[in-house]
User: Which sequence fits this backbone?
């Protein structure tokens, strides 16, 4: 039935997608969480009030969120070249993916942390906890369910964004569906790649929801 | 132990609003082992005053000295160390919901850098003290309000503080739970000699555990002294209002209360015969003699089987032509 599907190609594309999404989700979390925390604690009357940092970070985050992803890919050619020595391939594609997703995720982390009752932070201060302790032992653990569900949403977006990584030869299922399926008039290939993407999204969402639910003790 | 000297606090204007003076030249002294109550309406400045005792607010002028250390002048790190010896509990508990009861109580010990094995031992001891050893692995969301406050108390006592600040600690609790929490606080005060400073808007809280009281109004202390002295000889109208409010609330708690006018001896006899008919007893809670009009009022409660009490009340109401029922609470 799927006689026109090049399973070898599908397998390679799946690996590329998993690689790109995996790496970029990891770095998105690594950048987005501290950024989100900083956006909250530098705010007026918060743990580490600092209007300058607050404004600069807010501006950077908004710029990256405003630029269309495809433009970001082109803009960040030199950056990928600089960091990785090449601007082509799945690894190079992760650079714009991270740049696009981290600010988006930082806003989600920011919202999650703002949800925490100020009284809880004050109680921790009253116990003599330092700013760093409060971030590490209060802010992040208390917001963790929302931080995880935000990462799930971001990861799903990364799966769909990764389809555009074809521009830089990143490959992946989205690119395969487009090039080997749509452009080659190979409907079967298009369907298989599409279905695989849906399955991947389902798995990510399912795991994310499960973890988030487990963490939520409210 | 605690000295507050001529403290004022002005919150600067935000945007177009005007600056707010929360405290005006407040001075007070609290001795070791005192249970010191600060009572006032919301906005009277009592919360700001309490928060100054652990440096959550800094005075605009004046100084706060605890155990010889000027809290208002401490550097960040010294302040954090000082705070470990000043526990605080809150109206809304402010527990970490991501941590179990045990982990919540362990938190201040982690902050203080206590070794793990020691934390385990100490937490067990604290949970036993507040009577929650069997809920150690529950999460705060699984606890009742009273239990949450017990966790809050255990947490506040973790580093063996010299002072415990109570920020409306019983205001979110029902009267029974309030009584049990106050009792626990009093026991802890007796056992450890810890100094308790509590703010409240309920006189009943002050009456049940405090030995000293300060009444606040509009950022100033209007009356201060020993509880007995203030309760018997309240001078300031605000204090009197608080005392009156307490009486009203107590009357409400104790069941149906009637106020009737009595002008003749037979009215009184009539009342007694009704009570006898329905086998209820009359408890007088207040009264007033009007020498000029011969219309004396008496407030009383009927105690007994609820069904009988209701019948007796109906009977009294039906005789309204003889006895004027003024008020029915």
Assistant:
């Amino acid at each position: 039935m799927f006689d026109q599907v090049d399973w070898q190609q599908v397998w390679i594309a799946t690996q590329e997608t998993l690689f790109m999404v995996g790496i970029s989700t990891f770095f998105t979390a690594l950048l987005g969480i501290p950024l989100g925390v900083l956006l909250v604690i530098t705010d007026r009357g918060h743990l580490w009030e600092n209007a300058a940092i607050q404004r600069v970070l807010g501006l950077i985050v908004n710029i990256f969120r405003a630029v269309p992803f495809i433009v970001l890919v082109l803009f960040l050619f030199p950056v990928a070249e600089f960091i990785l020595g090449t601007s082509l391939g799945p690894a190079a594609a992760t650079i714009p993916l991270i740049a696009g997703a981290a600010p988006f995720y930082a806003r989600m982390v920011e919202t999650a942390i703002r949800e925490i009752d100020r009284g809880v932070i004050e109680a921790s201060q009253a116990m003599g906890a330092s700013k760093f302790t409060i971030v590490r032992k209060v802010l992040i653990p208390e917001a963790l369910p929302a931080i995880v569900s935000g990462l799930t949403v971001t990861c799903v977006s990364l799966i769909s964004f990764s389809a555009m990584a074809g521009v830089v030869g990143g490959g992946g299922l989205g690119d395969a569906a487009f090039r080997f399926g749509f452009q080659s008039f190979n409907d079967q290939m298009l369907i298989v790649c599409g279905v695989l993407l849906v399955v991947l999204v389902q798995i990510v969402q399912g795991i994310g929801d499960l973890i988030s639910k487990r963490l939520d003790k409210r | 132990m605690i000295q507050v000297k001529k403290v004022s606090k002005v919150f600067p204007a935000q945007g177009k609003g005007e600056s707010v003076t929360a405290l005006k030249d407040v001075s007070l002294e609290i001795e070791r082992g005192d249970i010191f109550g600060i009572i006032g309406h919301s906005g009277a400045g009592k919360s700001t005053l309490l928060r100054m005792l652990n440096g959550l607010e800094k005075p605009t002028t004046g100084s706060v000295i605890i155990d010889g250390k000027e809290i208002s002048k401490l550097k960040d790190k010294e302040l954090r160390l000082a705070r470990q010896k000043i526990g605080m509990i809150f109206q809304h508990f402010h527990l970490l919901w991501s941590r179990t009861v045990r982990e919540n109580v362990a938190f201040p010990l982690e902050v203080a850098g206590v070794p793990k094995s020691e934390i385990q031992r100490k937490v067990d001891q604290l949970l036993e003290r507040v009577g929650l050893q069997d809920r150690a692995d529950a999460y705060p969301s699984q606890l009742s309000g009273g239990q949450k406050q017990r966790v809050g108390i255990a947490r506040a006592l973790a580093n063996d503080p010299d002072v415990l600040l109570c920020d409306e600690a019983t205001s979110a609790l029902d009267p029974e739970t309030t009584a049990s929490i106050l009792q626990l606080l009093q026991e802890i005060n007796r056992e450890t000699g810890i100094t308790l400073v509590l703010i409240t808007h309920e006189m009943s809280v002050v009456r049940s555990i405090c030995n000293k009281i300060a009444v606040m109004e509009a950022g100033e202390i209007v009356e201060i002294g020993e509880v007995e002295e203030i309760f018997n000889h309240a001078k300031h109208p605000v204090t009197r209002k608080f005392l009156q409010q307490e009486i009203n609330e107590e009357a409400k708690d104790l069941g149906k209360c009637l106020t009737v006018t009595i002008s003749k001896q037979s009215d009184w006899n009539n009342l007694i015969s009704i009570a006898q008919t329905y086998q209820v007893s009359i408890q007088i809670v207040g009264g007033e003699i009007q020498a000029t009009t011969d219309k004396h009022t008496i407030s009383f409660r009927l105690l007994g089987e609820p069904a009988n009490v209701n019948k007796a009340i109906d009977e009294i109401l039906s005789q309204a032509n003889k006895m004027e029922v003024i008020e029915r609470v």
Q: What stands out?
A: Chain B is about 40% helix and 25% strand.
